[in-house]
Write a structure and sequence with these properties.
The complex is a heterodimer of chains A (429) and B (444). Chain A contains 16 helices and eleven strands. Chain A is an alpha+beta fold and 429 residues long. In chain A, the strands form two sheets. Chain A has a six-stranded mixed beta sheet, with helices on both faces. Chain B is an alpha+beta fold. In chain B, the strands form two sheets. In chain B, strands 1-2-6-3-5-4 form a six-stranded mixed beta sheet, with helices on both faces. The chains are: A alpha+beta (429), B alpha+beta (444). Chains A and B meet through helix 2, strand 5, helix 3, helix 4 and helix 10 of A and helix 2, strand 5, helix 4, helix 10 and strand 10 of B.
Chain lengths: 429, 444
């Protein structure tokens, strides 16, 4: 086992304007990944502006000072590159992988929209992308069975006012109310070099990458005093177990059991990650063995347990199963609870070894592409101040002990659980 | 604010080289130095196209049944043995092949391949397990069919190819066809098709890997190769456009699936067809995505592509649009397909398509999984070892006339089938009034 999860070189620099630049050279393939994390996500959104960080992400592809509307996509794809961006509660990331000779183009485009988005923002663009995002909401959350589970779980897990209380996609009402000035202010406030990390991974010499970063980003001014997101680290404990039963047009009953655990990046959360793997990853997992195979309560393709890797407050652990034909939601829920409670009776070394082996494979798969590595480096620089800490995660998982697991399991107490249960229309009538 | 106004040009191009293809008695491999993980896939000529009539979904059930233990160990012991290596087994059938594969840390590859061989060659196939797997698969399909998309896809496929053809029915069957499978069907399919040696594809850091030993493991006791399934099927586009309506009461979106028959994967026009489809609906700046998403705001995304297998292919356009704009979105979509057929592509659009597709070869083919997939393409479609290296040159060399000719030859806007899965009560009258084509209720 490698002593580090990141056996590639890492070099870092900070421009005078505060932009952190991370370079990791790897000449295996003639491609280079560019990845920028902005330390702004839906956790920064005040009441009435839910969904704004994500809608803003869309606007970043619609042109900037020297880039015409839709030209960004055309230039990257026309260079042979792949690109995208995502927004989550913690942050917004933008990334592209291009043939190495087009690195400079990618950096120019990223700099232009970091420093020059506002002059290109128009009402027409906002109106168009608002409709696109509303269609995204319909497609992903409203038009599919169980699609709204995440929208329902978050407010149960996090109290009003907590930065994770609302979902990143936002509400239709807030999206409809979004005005142009708010987005201009959003960019001015958060899309500044000292609130970003730029990672460049692949077929490039570090000195060249640093020089290009200076050339394209060096002239952008820093913004002092970026307003922080509301503090989510000390949420009030729920007074008791919370639950929501949803009767809907779903093909089978499904139960989610969730709770807050620890922030991503802590040793406690590493134990939760291993525990989730023991619970729900693979056919050798407890949920599979006991609910899908053993008691035959759950459909085998639909058992899962995973942590959502959020770093700015205790992150959720979500455990879920969907009922086999003829099984009702109550029996399924009882089965899930039994598996969760059964963790307290002890976990075997064999289970721990299995989980560690699977996590190692998942890790190496993530770092098998330059894009995967670039995103990791941006994450660890943004959230933990040092990209090299990316190499610590895999060893941290490997060092989780049975005692640490027992401690993590002991915290899966019924009194802090959130239960979301979907009932079919027939079964509830 | 100080931005650099001038857009930089490219640096010196660094050519991508597809790794050398190593062939050894049934093994096709590529050496990827430094990769921690390796992938091995056994390709068997037993894809869904081999399923007997009325047994749609059989290969998919066999795929699941292979994971239910082997002659040597029960399913729990098998899962533990495999997962303790950090290995993942995947079993799947597409139209042309049945694939049993593992991904594992490269030093565990021999053990993982031995487990792969055990599942593929000597599965337990206990009748009780098979019945359970079949029922689970039927339930899983019912779950899947509750989402928008699968019913529309079934309707489209049936209309394009004919429901009397295997490929006119869904790849994984439907909930009823799967529920109707018997234990004997599953055991018989395995007995008929899994005696052939197949081909083992390996991608990873081969420094310490004995390919001959891996081959010996998976080919031990195998019989003769099976006879090929036959050559390409004729492409018969429909004359006259039609709209098939799949009711999804209360749906906030209409799921659109448009298409018609097209040539097979190894067709000589593959490159210009791919580029024409990229201009039409492949790239983000494609005609369809630009108009329907970026100008109109009707959708989160729309795409067009030629989906091609060994004996047949089709044009497929997919999108989800807000219910209220279903008809205008369809009119625009058919309009862009028609324009592309009639007028071809322009050089600026083609330039993006060309370099994007060529660049994607280097961007996408980084991982053992991706390289294994590329090797499998060579095997399944009988393509030469230098195929990927030449593909890059062919993409970059395709000129406007050739691509426009391919668009004219292989796009058939007047023979399109337009499947609309949405709230029929809300959209039917407008669809009928649109004159897009005869409106029928879908059969599947």
């Amino acid at each position: 086992m490698s002593p580090t999860g990141y056996p590639w070189p890492i070099e870092t620099a900070r421009l005078d304007n505060g932009l952190r630049v991370v370079v990791s050279e790897d000449r295996t393939a003639p491609v280079v990944a560019v990845n920028i994390w902005y330390d702004v996500g839906s956790r920064h959104e005040p009441d009435g502006q839910t969904g704004f960080a994500h809608l803003f992400e869309h606007l970043m592809f619609e042109g900037s000072a020297h880039v015409a509307k839709t030209e960004h996509m055309r230039l990257i794809q026309g260079a042979g590159g792949s690109l995208n961006a995502t927004t989550n509660p913690d942050r917004t990331n933008y990334f592209e992988t291009v043939p190495a000779e087009h690195l400079e183009l990618a950096l120019w485009l990223e700099a232009d929209r970091m420093g020059g988005l506002v002059p290109a923002l128009t009402q027409e663009t906002l109106d168009n992308q608002r409709e696109v995002v509303k269609n995204e909401r319909r497609q992903r959350y409203e038009n599919v069975p169980y699609g709204d589970a995440w929208l329902r779980l978050l407010p149960l897990l996090y109290p009003p006012g907590h930065p994770y209380h609302h979902a990143t996609i936002g509400s239709m009402d807030d999206l409809n109310a979004a005005d142009l000035a708010t987005f201009a202010a959003f960019h001015t406030t958060y899309y500044v070099p000292n609130n970003a990390v730029l990672s460049v991974v692949g077929d490039v010499a570090p000195a060249d990458a640093f020089a290009l970063a200076e050339k394209y980003f060096g002239g952008l001014p820093a913004l002092p005093d970026i307003p922080p997101a509301p503090d989510g680290t000390r949420p009030a404990r729920p007074t008791g177990p919370l639950r929501e039963d949803v009767v809907g047009d779903v093909p089978a009953p499904r139960v989610y059991i969730a709770q807050r655990t620890h922030p991503f990046g802590t040793p406690e959360y590493d134990a939760v990650t291993v525990l989730a793997t023991i619970l729900g990853n693979g056919r050798g997992s407890r949920l599979y063995q006991r609910l899908a195979d053993g008691a035959r309560l759950a459909q085998p393709d639909y058992v899962s347990a995973y942590g959502v890797d959020l770093a700015h407050a205790p992150a959720p652990l979500i455990v879920s199963a969907t009922a086999r034909d003829g099984v009702n939601a109550a029996d399924l829920e009882a089965g899930l609870v039994e598996v969760l409670d059964g963790l307290g009776d002890g976990i075997g070394q064999e289970e721990l070894d299995r989980a560690k082996a699977l996590l190692a494979t998942a890790w190496w798969r993530q770092v098998s592409t330059v894009a995967g590595r670039a995103d990791l480096l941006s994450r660890y620089a943004t959230q933990f101040g040092d990209p090299a800490r990316a190499g610590d995660r895999l060893p941290a998982w490997q060092s989780v002990t049975l005692d640490a697991l027992a401690e993590a399991a002991a915290q899966l107490r019924p009194d802090v659980r959130v239960t979301l249960s979907y009932l079919t229309e027939e079964s509830s009538s | 604010m100080s931005l650099v106004a001038e857009r930089p040009g490219p640096g010196a191009a660094r050519p991508y080289r597809f790794p050398e293809v190593v062939r050894r008695d049934g093994v096709v491999a590529a050496h990827l130095p430094g990769q921690a993980l390796a992938v091995a896939v056994l390709l068997i000529d037993a894809g869904a196209a081999r399923e007997p009539e009325g047994r749609e979904g059989l290969a998919a059930v066999v795929a699941k049944a292979l994971e239910e233990g082997t002659g040597e160990r029960d399913s729990a012991a098998y899962a533990l043995a495999l997962e303790s290596l950090g290995a993942e087994l995947f079993t799947a059938a597409d139209w042309d092949s049945f694939r049993v594969g593992v991904q594992a840390p490269v030093d565990r590859l021999p053990d993982a391949v031995a487990l792969l061989a055990e599942a593929a060659r000597t599965p337990r196939l206990d009748p009780e397990d098979i019945a359970r797997v079949r029922d689970d698969e039927a339930t899983a399909l019912r779950m899947d069919w509750a989402d928008p998309g699968p019913r529309a896809e079934a309707a489209l496929r049936g209309d394009i190819f004919g429901r009397d053809k295997r490929h006119g029915r869904p790849l994984n069957g439907d909930p009823d066809s799967v529920a109707g499978l018997s234990v004997d069907d599953v055991v018989g399919y395995h007995r008929t098709w899994f005696g052939q040696p197949g081909t083992l594809v390996v991608a990873g850091d081969l420094t310490g890997v004995d390919l001959d030993a891996l081959g010996a493991t998976v080919f031990a006791g195998a019989g003769e190769p099976v006879e090929g399934a036959g050559g390409p099927l004729p492409v018969v586009p429909r004359t006259g456009r039609r709209v098939l309506l799949v009711d999804r009461p209360g749906s906030v979106q209409s799921t659109l699936r448009l298409g018609h028959a097209a040539p097979y994967r190894a067709h000589p026009d593959y490159v210009p067809m791919t580029l024409a489809a990229t201009v039409l609906g492949g790239a983000f700046t494609s005609r369809l995505n630009h108009l329907i998403r970026e100008v109109r705001g009707y959708t989160y995304g729309i795409r067009a592509e030629f989906g091609q297998s060994r004996r047949f292919g089709r044009l497929l356009v997919s999108a989800g649009v807000q219910t209220a704009v279903t008809v205008p979105a369809l009119v625009d979509t058919v309009g862009e397909i028609s324009r592309t057929e009639a007028e071809g592509v322009t050089e600026p659009e083609l330039a993006v398509a060309r370099s994007w597709r060529a660049g994607q070869l280097s961007v996408d083919l980084q991982t053992p999984g991706a390289i294994a997939g590329a090797l499998a393409t060579l095997v399944v479609h009988d393509l030469p070892d230098d195929y990927h290296a030449n593909l890059r040159a062919a993409l970059l060399g395709a000129d406007e006339a050739t691509v426009s000719d391919a668009a004219a030859k292989h796009l058939h806007p007047s023979g399109l089938t337009l499947v609309v899965e949405g709230d029929a009560a809300t959209i039917r009258d407008e669809l009928v009034a649109s004159g897009l084509g005869e409106v029928l209720d879908a059969q599947f």
